[in-house]
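Good morning,

Attaching, inline, the backbone tokens for the sequence recovery test we're adding to the shared suite. The designed sequence is right after.
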């Protein structure tokens, strides 16, 4: 197969959801369709168990297990599908944000009884920023849930994207009878079944009396009415708008019962984008270019202190990556080759000889990589779009063992390169501040500093609301601002200026007083 054909048949995406909406179940069912697994229940090890939410060691253990399932590749029809797993625990949201920079599209799973929930809202913000095409799967139709039209309105209002149903449920809960596939014009009747795939009936003429035979008079009338309403209210589906990230097609089903999933998957492979062009500081990289380029979007550390090795996950952005070929580590300006790159097929991790744009390769690493690093066939290229997001929690980090200052420094540097949390150095007093999205990371950092670097740290409270990256066309105003707020100015690890606002009021006042300064909650704008 030619390079172009290999790349065009790739679909690299992530499934995102609020915990418990059914992401794991849906992932598993997609693998089932791809023949990558043969029984349901196989992906469960992937999930951070609810009982373990307060025990982060347990979570880390499970995260260790989940290296193998970080990327799940499989073949379906003529397509090569790569699902990138995202951690379910909200304290690892930053991991998920970064994973979203490596996907070409996203499937959002929503629990139809609960509607749009917080975590989904946050993740959707990242998709909107990047104009990532999204599809929505309304899950758990076998249970009583919200009215499907209300759900459509809720998604539009809460996720800020236009929607277009491409399948429609016939009743729900106890009376759930199936879905009508608007995209393919066929009918899929519901039989609860966790293992096999239900049959579909081609059904183009909805006026046909046969509909009554299948679903009864009342539901047939309701379906006709709903579909009329849909074509009245929503514009015809436009693949172009979907690809621009402006319109989300919506499917209904029940992942647990392997129902409505095939409709989603078939439409997905047909319309979801193959690898998309990627922006770099220098130029736009087209995936079909023959020269290899890629960037590190995730680093997974081994929690075993005896083997302090990591896996750097690289998204191949263009061309073909090959084993044992020299590539340029752009930040080091040095050639490196990799004897044991791994790729991920279903739940196995195996050494590969080659990977194409759209694929993810895992490179064993001993501290050479940090998040955002670029690799290329030789070109000096720097990938953009790996923003840091303002953390939610902040603490001063202090050295608790004066003899181990160096170890502590090294540990902090490396953990930050891995993306465990963010470091800000206050320019006024020189103190180091660690920012995270959840309490767990502070525990993880303290533990890892001790066990991997033999360094001890202590946390001290600091009251902060947000970290804002600041920007202005007006240099004088920027300098004035920095002078006026010098106690609150910090540098992030790339040396960028960050304003640490201690309350939303303080931020509002600053915005009021300095109208020419833009305050951003992400490091890239
Ligand atoms: P997550 O990864 O998004 O956190 O969710 P997960 O797939 O683990 O699903 C959360 C719960 O919802 C699970 O139940 C799962 O079985 C259930 N579920 C998923 N899809 C459907 C569906 O279509 N219908 C119904 N009725 N339930 C669904 P659990 O009891 O928490 O876990 P388990 O004991 O079944 O594993």
């Amino acid at each position: 197969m030619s390079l172009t054909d290999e790349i065009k048949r790739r679909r690299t995406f992530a499934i995102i959801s609020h915990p418990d909406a059914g992401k794991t179940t849906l992932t598993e069912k997609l693998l089932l369709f791809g023949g990558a697994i043969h029984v349901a229940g196989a992906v469960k090890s992937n999930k951070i168990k609810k009982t373990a939410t307060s025990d982060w060691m347990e979570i880390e253990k499970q995260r260790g297990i989940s290296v193998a399932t970080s990327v799940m590749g499989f073949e379906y029809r003529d397509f090569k599908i790569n699902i990138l797993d995202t951690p379910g625990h909200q304290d690892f949201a930053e991991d998920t944000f970064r994973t979203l920079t490596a996907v070409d599209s996203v499937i959002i799973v929503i629990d139809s009884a609960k509607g749009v929930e917080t975590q989904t809202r946050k993740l959707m913000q990242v998709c909107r920023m990047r104009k990532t095409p999204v599809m929505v799967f309304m899950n758990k139709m076998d249970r009583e849930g919200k009215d499907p039209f209300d759900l459509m309105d809720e998604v539009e209002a809460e996720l800020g994207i236009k929607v277009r149903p491409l399948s429609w449920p016939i009743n729900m809960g106890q009376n759930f009878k199936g879905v009508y596939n608007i995209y393919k014009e066929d009918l899929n009747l519901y039989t609860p079944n966790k293992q096999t795939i239900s049959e579909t009936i081609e059904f183009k003429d909805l006026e046909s009396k046969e509909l009554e035979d299948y679903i009864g008079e009342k539901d047939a009338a309701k379906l006709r009415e709903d579909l009329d309403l849909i074509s009245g209210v929503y514009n015809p589906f436009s693949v172009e708008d979907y690809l621009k990230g402006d319109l989300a097609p919506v499917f209904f089903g029940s992942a647990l019962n392997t129902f409505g999933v095939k409709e989603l998957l078939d439409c997905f492979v047909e319309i979801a984008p193959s690898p998309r062009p990627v922006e770099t500081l220098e130029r736009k990289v087209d995936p079909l270019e023959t020269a290899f380029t890629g960037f590190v979007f995730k680093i997974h550390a081994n929690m075993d202190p005896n083997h302090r090795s990591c896996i750097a996950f690289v998204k191949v952005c263009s061309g073909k990556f090959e084993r044992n070929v020299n590539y340029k580590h752009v930040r080091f300006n040095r050639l490196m080759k990799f004897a044991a790159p791994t790729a991920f097929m279903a739940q196995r991790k195996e050494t590969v000889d080659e990977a194409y744009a759209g694929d993810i390769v895992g490179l064993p690493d001993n501290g050479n990589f940090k998040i955002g690093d670029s690799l290329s066939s030789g070109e000096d290229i720097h990938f953009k779009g790996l923003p840091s997001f303002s953390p939610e929690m902040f603490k001063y980090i202090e050295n608790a063992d004066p003899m181990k200052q160096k170890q502590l420094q090294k540990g902090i540097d490396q953990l930050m390169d891995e993306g465990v949390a963010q470091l800000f150095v206050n320019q006024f007093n020189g103190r180091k501040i660690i920012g995270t999205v959840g309490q767990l990371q502070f525990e993880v950092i303290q533990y890892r500093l001790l066990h991997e670097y033999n360094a001890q740290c202590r946390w001290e409270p600091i009251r902060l609301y947000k970290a804002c990256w600041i920007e202005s066309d007006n240099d004088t105003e920027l300098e004035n601002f920095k002078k006026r707020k010098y106690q609150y100015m910090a540098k992030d690890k790339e040396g960028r200026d960050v304003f640490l606002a201690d309350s939303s009021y303080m931020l509002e006042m600053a915005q009021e007083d300095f109208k020419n300064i833009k305050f951003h909650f992400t490091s890239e704008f």
